[in-house]
Design a protein that fits this description.
The complex is a heterodimer of chains A (about 725) and B (about 230).
Chain A (H helix, E strand, L loop, with lengths): L4 H7 L3 H11 L5 H10 L2 H4 L4 H4 L9 E3 L7 E6 L2 E9 L1 H6 L1 H17 L4 E11 L5 H21 L3 E8 L8 E11 L14 E6 L9 H5 L19 H14 L5 E6 L4 H13 L2 E5 L12 H6 L5 E6 L4 H10 L3 E9 L3 E6 L2 E7 H5 L12 H8 L12 H9 L8 H4 L10 E3 L6 E4 L6 E7 L2 H6 L1 H17 L4 E10 L6 H21 L3 E7 L3 E2 L2 E2 L3 E10 L16 E5 L14 H7 L10 H16 L5 E4 L4 H13 L3 E3 L7 H6 L6 E5 L4 H10 L4 E7 L3 E4 L3 E4 H17 L1
Parallel strand pairs in A: 4-5, 9-12, 17-18, 24-27
Antiparallel strand pairs in A: 1-2, 2-3, 3-6, 4-6, 7-10, 7-11, 8-10, 9-11, 12-13, 14-15, 15-16, 16-21, 17-21, 19-20, 22-25, 22-26, 23-25, 24-26, 27-28
Helix pairs in contact in A: 7-8, 7-10, 8-10, 19-20, 19-22, 23-26
Chain B lengths: L1 E6 L6 H11 L3 E6 L10 E4 L19 H11 L4 E4 L1 H9 L5 E3 L7 E9 L15 E8 L3 E3 L2 H10 L2 E6 L18 E5 L5 E4 L17 H15 L1
Parallel strand pairs in B: 1-2, 1-3, 3-4, 4-11
Antiparallel strand pairs in B: 5-8, 6-7, 6-9, 9-10, 10-11
The chains are: A alpha+beta (about 725), B alpha/beta (about 230).
Chain lengths: ~725, ~230
């Protein structure tokens, strides 16, 4: 049966992939089967361009309980009978088309991945990227995304405690919405997404199945698109109230002895969920498509299998125990139906009203082709890296003026206007709220706590995908370190352009190599992750944006640190190198982009120094030497100090003895630097700690007064920098 | 004291409330499912925060038809103490157990922030441990907390001392600037005429321990416990 290009385009498979299917099946696929292949062999479900690379990432660790890819999320041991499941996932393409529902269902999806592990979700984070916020369409996207995250997360009662939002022309046509979720598993009550024995029943619970989201995985997520309007029907619609009830019911269901497996229906709906369960179980599967409750009439088997209707879960249930399952879900007012049976055999057999519609080998469906590639470093990149930054002119404005401009820049200004739309208190575990470097959560009944954060500077990854990704890992861990916690697990959300182009292939290879190197150096496993490719419009890819989610453990959650200065007369100290006369530190900086419209330079990082700086900071916090600690990143040292002053409500007098290039000194973004404040009496002990780990340390000044003064180049009243930082974001999206 | 914490589908603060009452304040607490009709065993009833029934139609509009609300009405009519927090306050207004209505925040956004509540009446069973003019540092998180009522009702509430909490600054100044949602007269919490039913938008259970930002919320629960102890003494 010859297949038309139109059909192939609809399911986003290439002709050679189609031929591979024919070859492996030994025949042409039926139309329904073609739909199944389109879904499972999509980039989103099949990880064709990333599988081989992701396999090289380190995941071994004493704490690792579930390896990446084995189940819905990675799980690590926290001790005391607790384990934590964590994962980050993207919902970029749907959010570009329908931002509210795209973001809402992105949140819904990641939550399901977590409670499919039997973990009770305790925190959400979201990492967002948009074009410049002065643009009308971008404002529409921003409002929609924030509204969607807010409405879904708040309704479902999971606190949204962190994340980032970053603006650049690079993301104008391709916003990024990456949602991370963390959940707690108690005493080995971990669920698995597989059946136990042939004969186990496949049950579908939750929402009815409708036509929303068909081709969401293949159509939206697996190729670039220009015609957004036609893709609207492929965006899923969320119902957080239903999901809240579903969480409670499913977690309760795991206590029923006959419930042996739990899986969520996400991208590619029942198709991926059920067939992946079968593969994991090493069994075949019979699906009775007519048993699936529908919310629309006249749905074809194809539509039912591919629907991405939200808030649906699959259970594997030992026969004879389904009545208890029905009773439980009935009590929660949720639908439950038996839709199939796991069986001995290799195939997934789909039946409609008793007649077999298709029979396809499970492993052929789940074993999508793997692509590896090697691509040279593009010349344009070398040119950007080699740019002589000493040619960048020092601004004619005063340092104080530039500082105020940067404080109110969309990439630096306070994000409070955004995150106060999210409930970050519910579940009453929030010890350090959003607005700092990482959120800190307590674990009720335990002394221990956790810190969580996301980080990635796409601009720096663009300038050097390998070093930029190492820096992303380092920063995600540094955010954790400045709260006093020790990072123990990472999750990665890859966001890249079209993987069929050499430039993106170069970025992918380099980025994963960097991630591997960094994770190895830190000794931290990457426990889960997600890949979103084809993020480009009109042939231009987004910055390579490998977002790193990090989780750390605080042995004593009471001994944590926060950003703001605390006490008059505390000393302000820089941990890390003071290379502020080094103009190279401006590479990829916010200042260079914001003031000079330039993205250039060679980012660098010394991993050993980074590890030592983080270690000294952490030790100082647990020894209770410090009053505050803050990571130096976007905007550089002056911004970091200003933030400490604003958040602490206290001025500071700083002497750096800057030379001619005050801009490099104040706004350079060299890595591995932390600004701390502490009582003078503790300076000696901190100094010893720093010296023992060969970490440079420099006293910068003192906390106090009502002004921020830096040498004689900056002298600004606290009220003025406070106003610039606190109102910058609102101005950027409404002026 | 035995607290009954009502749970509707979509409620999520019941666990937080349980934590504030049981582990933290050492009380007996039990969840009451929305289909329940028997409340006699409880010394006090809590309608906690959340999004009962997804806030469909209006916040609390559907919950108020639950079977348990008939029992709560009887319980309140008999003088039993009832506290409605956030969504719970909305349910109490929808049920007519408290006057007025909670509308969409005037700026139209969901807002999660710490508030300082000025205690306006310290002779209620919910505020006996406080003094008029005290401020309690308690967080709020809601999209529909804008308390509105007709002029006659507001006059009656103010005249009778039924306004228990107002949004203020840390020094207790009640100003328009610190009004986080547009509520008339910065009203954050009220009681019924009889004084046994209190509704408030901010969440006292979210301020039950210093570690999570403060424990001023315990003033309210402790006042309730005190009054129940004297009642049974």
């Amino acid at each position: 049966m010859p297949v038309t290009q139109e059909t192939l385009d609809e399911i986003a498979l290439s002709r050679s992939e189609y031929e591979a299917i024919v070859d492996r099946l030994g025949r042409d696929p039926e139309p329904l089967e073609l739909g199944l292949f389109g879904a499972l062999w999509s980039e989103h479900c099949g990880y064709k361009h990333t599988k081989a690379l992701l396999r090289t990432l380190p995941s071994a660790s004493d704490r690792l309980l579930v390896a990446p890819g084995a189940e819905n999320a990675g799980v690590i041991d926290l001790g005391d009978g607790l384990a934590v499941a964590m994962k980050i996932e993207s919902h970029n393409h749907p959010s570009a088309v329908e931002p509210f529902e795209g973001a809402a269902t992105g949140v819904g999806g990641i939550i399901r991945d977590i409670f499919a592990m039997g973990a009770r979700p305790i925190a959400l984070l979201n990492s967002l990227r948009f074009g410049q916020p002065q643009d009308a369409r971008t404002r529409y996207l921003i409002n929609g995304v924030i509204g969607g995250i807010s409405s879904y997360g708040n309704c479902i009662g999971i606190p949204d405690v962190g994340g980032e939002i970053f603006f650049s022309d690079s993301y104008k046509g391709n916003p990024l919405v990456n949602a991370m979720c963390v959940g707690l598993i108690e005493d080995g009550k971990m669920a698995s997404a597989s059946a136990k024995e042939p004969g186990d029943l496949l049950m579908l619970v939750g929402a009815d199945t409708g036509r929303d989201g068909i081709h969401g995985a293949s159509g939206l997520a697996s190729r670039t698109f220009e015609e957004q309007a036609e893709m609207r029907s492929a965006v899923q619609v969320g119902n957080p109230f239903l999901e809240k009830v579903l969480i409670e019911a499913c977690i309760e269901a795991l206590d029923i002895p006959g419930v042996v497996g739990l899986q969520d229906c996400g991208a590619a709906g029942i198709t991926s969920a059920a067939i992946e369960m079968a593969e994991r179980s090493g069994m075949g599967l019979k699906i009775d498509i007519d048993a699936v409750p529908r919310r629309e009439e006249g749905m074809t088997p194809y539509e039912v299998m591919l629907s991405e209707s939200q808030e649906r879960m699959l259970l594997a249930v030992t026969p004879g125990h389904e009545d208890k399952v029905f009773e439980l879900f009935d009590r929660w007012d949720l639908d439950a139906s038996v839709i199939g049976t796991f069986e001995l055999g290799e195939n997934v057999r789909i039946f409609d009203e008793g007649s077999q519609v298709s029979s396809t080998p499970v492993v052929t469906l789940t074993d999508a082709p793997e692509y590896t590639f090697s691509a040279p470093k593009p010349d344009w990149l070398t040119a950007l890296q080699d740019k002589d930054l000493s040619e960048v002119p020092v601004p004619s404005e005063s340092a104080g003026e530039v500082l105020l401009q940067l404080l109110s820049a969309p990439n630096i200004a306070s994000r409070f206007p955004i995150y106060r739309q999210y409930d970050y208190h519910v579940q009453i575990n929030t010890v350090v709220e959003p607005g700092g470097d990482a959120a800190v959560l307590r674990l009720k009944g335990l002394k221990r706590g956790i810190a969580v954060s996301t980080d990635c500077n796409g601009r720096i990854c663009y300038l050097d995908p390998k070093i930029g990704t190492i820096i992303a890992v380092a920063e995600a861990c540094r955010n954790i370190a400045v709260t006093g916690a020790e990072p123990v697990a990472l999750t990665d959300g890859l966001n890249f352009g079209n993987p069929e182009t050499p430039d993106v292939q170069f970025q992918l290879n380099e980025s994963i190599a960097g991630m591997r190197e960094a994770a190895d150096a830190f000794g931290i496993p990457i426990v889960s992750g997600n890949a979103s490719l084809y993020n480009e419009s009109a042939g231009t890819a987004i910055f390579p944006t490998p977002i790193i989610g990090s989780l750390g453990i605080l042995e004593d959650v009471e001994k944590h640190s926060t950003v703001g200065f605390k006490n008059e007369s505390d000393m302000i100290v820089l941990l890390g190198a003071d290379d502020w006369d080094n103009v190279e530190g401006l590479a990829g900086s916010e200042y260079l982009d914001f003031k000079h419209d330039t993205i250039a330079g060679q980012p660098t990082i010394d991993i050993d120094l980074e590890l030592n700086v983080q270690s000294v900071c952490r030790d100082a916090i647990s020894s209770e030497l410090l009053s505050s600690a803050h990571d130096v990143s976007d905007g550089g040292l002056a911004i970091a100090i200003a933030e400490c002053a604003i958040i602490g409500g206290k001025g500071a007098s700083i002497s750096l003895t800057v030379g001619d290039r005050w801009d490099a000194a104040l706004f350079g973004e060299s890595q591995s630097r932390i600004v701390v404040s502490l009582p003078e009496a503790n300076l000696g002990e901190l100094s010893q700690m720093a010296e023992s780990k060969s970490v440079p340390m420099k006293v910068l000044g003192t906390v106090g007064g009502g002004e921020l003064s830096i040498d004689d180049v900056v002298q600004l009243p606290l009220a003025e920098i406070d106003d610039a930082w606190k109102n910058g974001f609102t101005k950027a999206v409404s002026d | 004291m035995k607290f009954g914490i009502v749970v509707f589908p979509g409620t999520w603060s019941e666990k937080d409330t349980f934590h504030a009452l049981a582990p933290v304040l050492g009380q007996d607490a039990e969840y009451v499912w929305h289909g329940e009709t028997e409340l006699s065993g409880f010394d006090a009833i809590v309608l906690p925060g959340g999004f009962s029934y997804g806030d469909y139609l209006r916040s609390g509009a559907i919950a108020r038809f639950s079977r348990v609300m008939d029992a709560v009405k009887d319980y309140a009519d008999a003088g039993g103490p009832v506290i409605g927090i956030c969504n719970g306050f909305q349910v109490l207004c929808e049920s007519g157990l408290l006057p007025g209505v909670l509308m969409r925040n005037d700026h139209l956004e969901f807002r999660c922030i710490w508030t300082d509540l000025r205690v306006e009446n310290d002779s209620t069973n919910f505020t006996s441990r406080a003094k008029v003019g005290d401020t309690l540092h308690i967080p709020m998180s809601h999209g529909e907390g804008n308390y509105q009522a007709d002029a006659a009702t507001i006059e009656r509430l103010e005249g009778n001392g039924q306004v228990v909490f107002r949004y203020a600054d840390a020094s207790g100044n009640v100003t328009e600037e610190v009004n986080p949602n547009g509520s008339i007269n910065n009203i954050a919490g009220i009681i019924n005429e009889r004084g046994n039913v209190l509704g408030m938008m901010p969440h006292p259970e979210k301020a039950c321990e210093a570690l999570i930002g403060g424990d001023d919320g315990n003033v309210i629960f402790s006042s309730m416990i005190d009054s129940l102890a004297t009642a049974t003494a």
